From TrEMBL:
Pfam families: DRL_cat, NAD_binding_3
A single MF term (Gene Ontology): NADP binding
Domain Oxidoreductase DRL-like catalytic: 154-316
Top-rank lineage group of the source organism: Bacteria
Low complexity composition-biased segments: 67-80
Region of interest (Disordered), ranges: 59-82
Protein's name according to its UniProt entry: Putative homoserine dehydrogenase
InterPro entries: Asp/hSer_DH_NAD-bd, DRL_cat, NAD(P)-bd_dom_sf
Sequence ranges assigned to domain Aspartate/homoserine dehydrogenase NAD-binding in this UniProt record: 22-129
Amino acid sequence: MLHAKLRELERAGTPIRVGLVGAGQMGRGFIAQVANIPGMRVAGAADIDPKRAEEAFKRAGQEPTYSLANGSANGSADASPAVTDDAGELARWEGVDVIVEATGVPEVGARVAVEAIEAQKHLVMLNVETDITVGVVLKQMADRAGVVYTGSAGDEPGAILELCDFANSLGFEVVAAGKGKNNPLNTQATPDTLKDEARKKAMNPKMLTSFVDGTKTMVELCATANALGFVPDTPGGHGPEESDANLLTELFCLKEEGGILSSYGTVDYVRGVAPGVFIIIRSAEGDVRETMAYLGQGEGPNHVLYRPYHLTSLETPISVARAAIYGQATITSLPEPSAEVTAVAKRDLKVGERLGPIGGFDYYGFVRSKESAGGLLPVGLASGAVLVREVRKGQEIERRAVELAEGSFVAELRERQDAALAAAGAGTDSG
């Protein structure tokens, strides 16, 4: 059991040493949770505002130092954690075994990921925006380096994959997967319209905006799809309203069966059942289906497996431990992604304007199949791009309508990933 392994590490005085990048809401929760876990220490944290990292450690009852050289090099219980504003330095630091990336910024996530992998650190990506943009190439790099690259337990995609692994291990067929949406959907939300709510929730307004405008949901569905080889049944998902998880089987079945789906193998979200995640499984006729009915799981052939919670960064230590102890990932994309999140204009965009970050004033995310996304701008490449063509409000932004941010590292990685996928596809076609 994982807890027993962690206790062994604690007794041996060799805890897993973690470096955290990003001390926002998710990072603060992670630091506080790890403080209660035997066999694991947050040895250092990096943030563009190191005072936030310092405060997070102090809230967890620890007194940090502002020098990695003076920080915990062995992860011992009485060592001081280190704080820095240099994420790359933390990723390269010999005092950590695992890096957790929690900024939510694709450009930062890509740079930190490569630094960590090249330094042969395991990497837990609590930054799904980066993963859906360049996760395939990062996984390839990690495999070659002999380290683990993984998404995080506690994020909806990780929680969904755990349900899928459970169902698949029992021989059930998973035909649909999804999540509840916490906030009412408003694609026109901005940091200005949400500033009061963000203040009350002690959240970054841009982060809250990415939740409310649907971008975060689209990103999470994309990561789930890429890990399962699924696609959205319709661009953007159906997003029906339903608060009773037991009724999801009536929605997520084929149209000819009375549901909303054109085909199985799909991801979607529900305006309700939040903050839960779910999968729809199918049982074979006979004793299995009869047993499922006896157990209160419905008459079939479709049944819902529902988890009514996900604990975000509080669960991330599970992925850290799996990676460090067993060399296992929680969730990664398949070698060929099946979905994409494109950028849709929140307002009329004019030539010469520079696009802001995710969760800003300019665009929101929209999930669709990878096959149908050709020529459109991936949301993870949008920040810093300059418009060379006008785009009307509500239109998906074409890639040719922008010049990507000069010197963008995530764009460079994406170009490498796209070239590798194209070469692999050409090789398959010629074979």
